[in-house]
Amino acid sequence: MDEQEDNRQQFNVRPIGIVHRPGSDAIPGLFFDPDQESMIVIDSLWESALTGIEEYSHLVVLFWLDRAERPENAPELFQPDGRDNLPSVGLFATRTPRRPNPIGMACPRLIRRDGNCLHVRGIDAWDGTPVVDIKGYAPRDDIRADAQVPKWLDRLWKTHDEERAARG
Amino acid sequence: MDEQEDNRQQFNVRPIGIVHRPGSDAIPGLFFDPDQESMIVIDSLWESALTGIEEYSHLVVLFWLDRAERPENAPELFQPDGRDNLPSVGLFATRTPRRPNPIGMACPRLIRRDGNCLHVRGIDAWDGTPVVDIKGYAPRDDIRADAQVPKWLDRLWKTHDEERAARG
């Protein structure tokens, strides 16, 4: 860690719960299955703070990618997803888990709440991943209907679709 | 801090930059102005990792609400925005900055990038707020077009619009 880092204020993140997704670690080269149901189990300490969350159809979930290697400074540019037909970019232009602060975000559908347990569909996190914040998904703040992405990302999504279709 | 908290793993967040928004602290009872331009100044350590971010029209910015009081356990339910015509809910059902991990999220438009400086429009954070992660906004992951919110939130948004219109 260099001087610039040492001199900065740092903050402490305390997990409020974990992602429970049985079996997901057993799948080699795990592909995100948008339809898989998983659970977010919130510590009993925070259960009452969930009151009213069940009126949202979707959540914003922030989680700590605790198994990701954490760079100490900007790594070399790289081709997203390791695809050699894509341009090299910096980590912030990608969703790589290898980030200075490895905070993942997902916007899953909330199927139902059972006390401190949120049943969701569409969270791309391994079993046991620590959860650090939950918010209701709010279209007015969170939808950017006119958002444009780099051409390479459109191409990558198309490739993912084709590969998923080929797997059947 | 109780035993349950003490026994848990904790994580360390290192800011990667700050929000620069001159004058915003001077506005009493600051209302979010969606059209205000502000800057995100990324530490030179991470500048090269921004390569390619300029091809996104919008960003997902995670920032640390460093001036927010941080609860040690679930506080009493409360009426959002202090409005006595709204139901009492838990903190996770709101965007209050008083969260166990005070991580704010905004999806601003990226106007342009000048080296380590991102000029954006639509970030609701005070001047000097530490930034902890930047991602490109990706419609496929981040838009939930069919999202529904609690009735009270629709009412609150309408009230905000009326109050904004009344101020001219």
Key traits:
3 helices, 7-stranded antiparallel β-sheet, Elongation Factor Tu (Ef-tu), domain 3, homodimer
Annotate the secondary structure layout.
The structure is a homodimer of 168-residue chains.
Chain A: H1 3-6, E1 11-13, E2 17-20, E3 37-42, E4 59-64, E5 103-106, E6 109-114, E7 117-121, E8 130-136, H2 139-142, H3 151-167
Antiparallel strand pairs in A: 2-3, 2-8, 3-7, 4-5, 4-8, 6-7
What this model shows, in words?
- The structure is a homodimer of 168-residue chains.
- Chain A is α+β, with helices and mostly antiparallel strands.
- Chain A has a single domain (10-167), classed as Elongation Factor Tu (Ef-tu), domain 3 (Beta Barrel).
- Chain A is 15% helix and 24% strand.
- Chain A is built from three helices and eight strands.
- A seven-stranded antiparallel sheet of chain A has the order 5-4-8-2-3-7-6, with no helix packed on it.
- In chain A, a hairpin with a 2-residue loop joins β6 (109-114) and β7 (117-121).
- The model of chain A is unreliable at 1-6 (pLDDT under 50).
